[in-house]
Each structure stands twice: as structure tokens, then as C-alpha cells.
């Protein structure tokens, strides 16, 4: 894509800003800042990856993945504002998911042990896990608020904290996985995923592109389940006081 053609894509941003102003949504500033920030971030990471791909430095790969996990943790952790210690729990959930997913892919020879594969796959895995964590925390806050009387009644009857909040946990885990599962049901029919589309535009064989997309699809489904379940196991006590009463 030429620089001129890339510049023309700002038309979409201008349309969005115009619609926001027309409907008085007040999103013009956020859209403008998001456009600038997103563009600069992508350009920056593009040059960084260009250097990393050439050097194949393992230490740099580890640093980049650690930074990804840190940023994802900060973003998802904001959904659990007020829950002390939620950030390290989110970090552990995302990190464990990343290690398990990447280890399986490399161990089974699904992807090559090069930065060209490791960084993009890790980025997609961590991004997917971040979304799952945010959805889980949002849903848990709603579940606890709406089921407060039920949870307190179970505690009064002698249930443990885990037993009292189990139903809320299960509903939250399911809710956090719904986008991933719905994506599996409609992929190829309603949407053509980014990785597959990018490969096809770059000139790859569509069948080969589909094979890589199937890999991502299956990996993301497992990653979503692992992330959500780990976070639920680590965080459920945060909605209770030290005396094990509901906050």
C-alpha cells in the first residue's frame, strides 16, 4: 500500500468524527486521540519488529512478550477496579495461557521457533486473553451485584465462599467465552478473520491461509477457556471480606 493510499484511509476517521458530532456523542476527541495514538503505536512496533526479525534475539522476544502481558494486564485489570490484587491475578492468568499455548505450538511443531511466528501468535493470544479477562470481571461484578441476596443466604446456611459464589462464577466464565464461541460458529460465513485476510492480500494461497486461521481459531478457543477458568479460581475471594462476608 502506498503512502498516499494509506493517507486516504483517514477518510474513514473523518466520517466517524462527523457522525459523532452529528449525533452529539461527544466522541470526537477520543476518536482523534485514538487515531493518532494507534497509528504511532503501530508504526513504532513495526520498526521494532523489523529489527527483532532480523536479529532473532531470544532476549528481545522475551522482553516484547513481557511488555505485551504488562499492557494487557493493565488494561484488563481496570475492569476490576476496587478489587485489591486483581492485577497480578490477571497477569498470572494471561502469562500461564501464553506459556501453555506457545509451548504446545512449538512442542508439537505447529509453528516454527522464529520471531516471525512467535511474536504475532503471542500478540494475538495475549490480546484474546486480555479481552476474556475484561469480560469476566465485568460479568462477575454484575453477577455479584444481582445475586447478592442469594450469595448471602447461602453463606448464612453454612456454605463455603466457593459454594456460595459458584453459580456466579460459572455464568461469568460462560459470558467471557461467548464472543470466542460465536466467532467459531460464524467464521468463514459471516467474517473472514484478520490473519487469513492479511495472508490472502499478501498473495498467499487461500487454502494455506485457511489452515493457519484454523490453527488460530482452535488455539484462541482453548486460550479463552484457560484464561477465564484460571482467573475465576484466583479471584473469586476478592468479592469477600477477610471475615468471608460479601463486600
UniProtKB/TrEMBL annotation:
Membrane topology: Multi-pass membrane protein
Subcellular location(s) of the protein: Membrane
Organism from which the protein derives: Paenibacillus ferrarius
Annotated TM spans: 58-76, 88-111, 117-137, 186-204, 210-234
UniProtKB keywords: Membrane, Transmembrane, Transmembrane helix
InterPro entries: UPF0014_fam
Family matches, as Pfam families: UPF0014 (PF03649)
GO cellular component, one term: plasma membrane
Record bears the keyword Transmembrane: yes
Family label: Belongs to the UPF0014 family.
Protein name: Iron export ABC transporter permease subunit FetB
